[in-house]
Each structure stands twice: as C-alpha cells, then as structure tokens.
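Appendix C reproduces, verbatim, an entry submitted by the partner laboratory led by Prof. M.T., so that reviewers can inspect both the input and the predicted structure.
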Amino acid sequence: MTERTATFEIDSRGDARSASRALDELYNRFREEDFSKDSDDGTDEMLEEFEALRDAVDDESAGQLIVTYRSRGDGSPPPSS
C-alpha cells in the first residue's frame, strides 16, 4: 500500500479561509457525485463527517489540516460510477 500525506498549517485567518474554501469545493464535488448515484453506499455519513470537518476549519482557529491518500496497492482501478 502506498501512502501520500500533505499537511497544511493553519496559522492565520487567511489560512483558515483558504482551507475552508478547499474543503467546500471537495464537499460540493462529493455531494454532486452522491446525487448522481442511485445507491446508498455510506456517502451520507461521509458527507456529514466532511461537513463537520469544514465547520471546524471555519471557526478560524489555528491548527493543521492533514490530507492522506492510501492506495490499495493491488493495482486495481477505482470502481466505475
């Protein structure tokens, strides 16, 4: 399994706004993808967790936003939608 991590330091209001906008964009894309599906594959729960994460960054307190991507490592492509 391959893992990639990016850490974003949130030290100012500008950093918090930038992180919040990035999370808004991701949230909206996941939500749009959920609307285009007919299945219930746990996306609602993921969206709720993402919304909570977005709201936490919106309070503009200092912190870190850590994004991690873990590949399956078996060479299989993502499932088609």
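The chain has one domain: 3-70. Additional entries are available on request from the coordinating office.
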